[in-house]
Sequence to fold (224 residues):
Amino acid sequence: EAGVTQSPTHLIKTRGQQATLRCSPISGHTSVYWYQQALGLGLQFLLWYDEGEERNRGNFPPRFSGRQFPNYSSELNVNALELEDSALYLCASSRTGTNEKLFFGSGTQLSVL
Amino acid sequence: SQKIEQNSEALNIQEGKTATLTCNYTNYSPAYLQWYRQDPGRGPVFLLLIRENEKEKRKERLKVTFDTTLKQSLFHITASQPADSATYLCSLSSGDDKIIFGKGTRLHILP
Fold:
């Protein structure tokens, strides 16, 4: 069974640009979570999607947005990139209706220059 | 809001000994608490989940306890091995449907 896949692995952007990160959950999982992990910091909750709907979002500005597609894959968009957006962005999936036992991808390392 | 406190100092343990990591939370007791392992440059990997009505959970060399009175969970690795070296994260629900994580404790098992 394939795990959670994220693309790209690495992404280099300059300040002010937009970044799009993608995530494919484990087959059968309908919930997708996005976390930001900046160097030296813990995982910060960004967004939670389930069954195509945004269920919750963390304390991030509106330029962080995303969506979930009918096949349950998800996209995270970051507009007007700032230097402090440089971080590892992790996607996780779980079965419907539960926040238990999240399966994480290997992440996208975003560098903003 | 709910906060998780894990000892951010690295923990050095001699191979073969038991490593004990601590997770404290600040507010209400969650319905369950989870432990994950994270290796450098990788996503966290789920290890164990313990529910509020469970005092202890075991899986091979791993043991987790959950004390709702102390608002604390302890994570034990017995007969530790160098391959157990990693960062261990505690996770629970913040109460508003957000799954939050502690900053993690870096564990080094010394051969």
